[in-house]
Amino acid sequence: SEIALGTEKNILLSESYPVGAVKAYSKCGEDKEANFSYINSVLSPLLPIDTKSFVAIGGTATSIASILSGEKEYKKSVTHGFSIKTSELKALTDKLFEVGLSGRKEISSIGEKRAEIIASGAAILTVLAERLGAEEIVASESDNLYGYLKVFVK
């Protein structure tokens, strides 16, 4: 997972951490406690930073936005810029582990392949939100390159 934090003018932190939804799921499976323990250990070098919100890119963030939006189908127009309250994320993460893989496969807006790893991905976002002190996460359909270009290319 790539983590970059900063202001509109400066990058304050740019680090890569060897954890992602696929890796966490392959190591920990459906075990919620094992997922959180593993993710916390990998992200332990990330010092707490007091930020109210951050932007998350990638399939986990946009899938969570899709689930929370209540849409039956995935729609980029809905997920891009969708605000995910940390309290909602924590509750959804608990639910995703609780219902198991068969229950996650019933969520039409994320698809069967994403259903396998979404709980682990949600756990990663939850740990990041807690470590950063964030009250919300904004889901983005854009990527790191877009963010870089937006800041540095005028």
Give me a quick take on this structure.
Helices cover 55% and strands 16% of the residues. It is an alpha+beta fold and 154 residues long. The two termini are 27 Å apart.
How much beta, percentage-wise?
15-25%
Low-confidence stretches: 148-152
Order of helices and strands: EEHHEHHEHHEH
| Average pLDDT taken over every residue | 88
Number of helical segments?
A: 7
> Judging from the principal axes of the Cα atoms, what is the shape?
globular
Total count of strands: 5
Strand order of the largest sheet: 3-5-4
Oligomer: single chain
Please characterize this protein's 3D structure:
There is one protein chain. Helix content is 55%, strand content 16%. By secondary structure, the chain is an alpha+beta fold. It has a 3-stranded mixed sheet with strand order 3-5-4. Strand 1 and strand 2 form a beta hairpin. It is globular. Mean pLDDT is 88; it is low at 148-152.
Task: Please write out the topology.
Elements: E1 2-6, E2 11-16, H1 21-28, H2 32-42, E3 53-57, H3 59-69, H4 76-79, E4 83-85, H5 86-105, H6 111-132, E5 136-140, H7 144-152
Parallel strand pairs: 3-5
Antiparallel strand pairs: 1-2, 4-5
Helix pairs in contact: 1-2, 1-6, 2-6, 3-6, 5-6
